[in-house]
Amino acid sequence: MTAIGPGLVSPGPASTGVQAPVRYSRVLTAEPGPFFLPEDKRAIVCVVADGAGINAELVVSSSHKTDPVVQKVFSELRRHAQKIRFQTRYAQVSEIAKLYQRHAPTAAGGEDDSERQEQVKGYIREANSMGASDLKIIVVGPYCRIRYTIHGRTRTYHELSASEGMLLSRALYNTMCAEITGSGLDQNAMQDAQLKAEVASQCGLVGSRISTRPANGRGIRIVMRLLPPNRSAVQELEELGYLAESQVPIIRDVMALPFGIALISGITGSGKSTTLKAMIENILRDSDQETDILTIEDPVEYDIEAEGCTQTPLVYEGDDPDARRNAWPNALRNAMRQAPKIIVPGEIRDAESAQIAYEAAVTGHTILSTVHTFDAPSIIDRFRSLGVADDRLFNPALTVCLINQSLLRKLCVDCRVPYAVGCAAIPADQRAIIEEFCDVGKVYLQGPGCECCRDKTPGVRGRQVAAEVIRTTAEFMEVFRQKGMLAARIFWVKEMRGVTKLAHAMHHVHAGLADPRHVMKDVAPLNTDRLHVGA
Fold first, then answer.
1. In which domain, by residue range, is 63 found?
2. Strand 293-297 vs strand 342-345: parallel, antiparallel, or unpaired?
3. Half-sphere exposure of 142 (CA within 13 A, CB side)
4. 413 and 369 within one domain
5. Domain named Bacterial type II secretion system protein E: which ranges (predicted)?
């Protein structure tokens, strides 16, 4: 086979007959290529490809055919053989060096940088217009996938080459973000940032939290949490999905207490911050803005446009994780000196902050915050593990309310399908479970989509809360202290007539607002309460 000349033109395999020459314009073993090699490994092997990254040539030093580095690159190419056609050629190390020099990446800037910024903004605007909660840029192997999370489901909406994805990732992190970790995007590190305020505004957002981490094969995963503007009206708890006849009265009663700690738990993305915001806005409205509320947020997510609430960012120097961790207890101490009626730390995650929060409650403050637990009673277990003393933790005058929530897909009422019509498409084992635990005459399934829902998620129109709300009592706390979390949960359900998160989800099912299959995926298996509490 003839050597490739200065223009990197190869005639392709001789056995295929006459073909148009392939013009190689990219080096896939240099940054940001999918088969990146460190500089000390590049002397003996190089992979060049056309602009689309489909046709490639593996150029190997004739003296290093069996070298482990060469074999590794060869194996990677073979692994992607369905997507990349390649041939092998042997050359001198001097020619391999020239290939890298000829296609060394130049610094991004000027017009190219601006174009990439606009491309990223276009994706953000599109995701926001579709109601996405997250935008994900994932570079793995030869491809970059742009994925949106809508109503808890994540799908790929755009596919690019890996090199283009890395250029977009750098444009986003290095030129469109503030408060970044490090001096620039590092593919080998976990980093955090926030979208610049002016960029967020241009995309129709109030802000965006950004997190990065390395992905396999010199790739990267970037997740943007999209924060849209506030609704102008105060959001009622019933609108979120809380039960008007049982859960909302408990929460309203707790919000009117003079002091105590109320905690909202759930997994990441379960809507905890939205519920917290709704609670704050309801408190301010009901008190005619006469309640003094101070929030501590990292970062400030949603603007609360009401007198009486001061939103403050967590303040710390640099990007040192220890500095950030120490900032929470310092911020809580400072907040107590500010003398607000209600303190809202965005999250309590360390022992010192937990103990300061209880000290604030003892001294007459109300604390509203969030934690990560799988159900409401486990909040107490979480704070016990953080070292809060039992005489405070199990005092129902201090630990006043425990809330746990998930988000459940809400059916589009214009195209939902009655169970009797759509059940034939459900696997028999799943159908048996649904028919055992549901009144199927009241059940609807996700529809095919219509003009009201097709642009986002066919058959789904938003999400609703499925939650459990415990107003603590002396009896509940004593059972928990003496017999443990499971016994306390059983006592709450059977003696206090508590509504579990699954029972709440089933309420939505029998109201025709949720598909039981979604309950199984978004909340819990339908037999959970029978197994855990005998209900």
1. 9-102
2. parallel
3. 23
4. yes
5. 113-485
